[in-house]
Amino acid sequence: MRCFSCTELYDTSVVGMCKECYEETNEMEEELKSEIDELRAKVALLKFWSPLDHHYHGRLIVPSLTSVVLVPSFDNPSTEPAVPFPAHKALLVSYSLLFRVMLENEMEESCTSTIKIGDVSYNALRAFVNYLYTIEACLDEQMACDLLVLAEKYQVKQLKAYCEKFLVSKLNWDNSIMSYAFAHQVMLDSALSLITDNMDKLTTKAEYVELLEKDPRLVVEIYKAYLSK
Questions:
Q1: Which of 43, 64, 72, 167 has the fewest beta carbons under 10 Å from its own?
Q2: In this structure, which long-range contacts are made by residues 202-205, counting pairs with CB atoms below 8 Å and at least 24 apart in sequence?
Q3: pLDDT in tens, 82-125
Q4: What CA–CA distance (Å, rounded) separates 176 from 229?
Q5: In the 8-state DSSP scheme, what is residue 84?
Q6: What tens digit of pLDDT does each residue of 119-132 get?
Q7: Pathway of this protein (predicted)?
Q8: How many Å apart are CA 31 and CA 43, to the nearest integer?
Q9: Which CATH class, in words, describes the domain spanning 52-172?
């Protein structure tokens, strides 16, 4: 017989795995268990510091150790007052290069310790912050779409992959057209947001000159988006 792991020949009266492979597998299993326990401990620590546990009857109790506030901002002035979400700067910059740029350079966000999150619902922003602390999200199709937009915009790769996997699992003929349109819009909005956040560098890129020649209408759209921020 051959060991089904290393394929070495051994006694035909024995079936399965040779001693060396068995011991090696056991060692790997113990190492994986140790890594899982360590990750669980880290998640538990993040959950302990999560500021979302400080909501009480709709009133936000801001923990003294948080250093940044995420505030929903809306284009529609009639929208109900925005509820701010406190967070830890170290956590935000560890997840997102965009958050790092905002908070570690001389920008409005670093000076005010406030990050305005455009056109996002209370529930979506809460779920977004909760994911950063717990690596967990309770998804339905609408929440997955909302979180995918945030993950794409703020470059939270793990959350983006998680939402994409969920939405692909829910894809069917009935929702295929809307899913196609949504995917196109997410990329469009994310690219435009990134451009308008770096307008000082726009005219230095060769692609800008090329776009100006081939499709000046898109350049106008970029400046309109920038001026409306």
A1: 64
A2: none
A3: 788 888 888 898 888 888 888 888 888 888 888 988 878 889 99
A4: 32
A5: P
A6: 788 899 999 999 99
A7: Protein modification; protein ubiquitination
A8: 18
A9: alpha beta
Q: Are 57 and 42 in contact (CB under 8 A)?
A: no
CA distances for 212 relative to 9, 141, 155, 194, 206, angstroms: 70, 38, 28, 18, 10
Q: How far is CA 175 from the centre of its chain?
A: 24
Both tokens assigned to 95:
């997840």
Give the whole-angstrom CA distance, residue 159 versus residue 201.
Answer: 29
Cβ(106)–Cβ(112) below 8 Å: no
Tokens of 97: 């290069």
**Could you tell me if 205 and 185 are in contact, meaning their C-beta atoms sit under 8 angstroms apart?**
no
Please state, in angstroms and as integers, the Cα–Cα distance from residue 28 to each residue in 23, 32, 109, 183, 194, following that order.
9, 6, 45, 40, 43
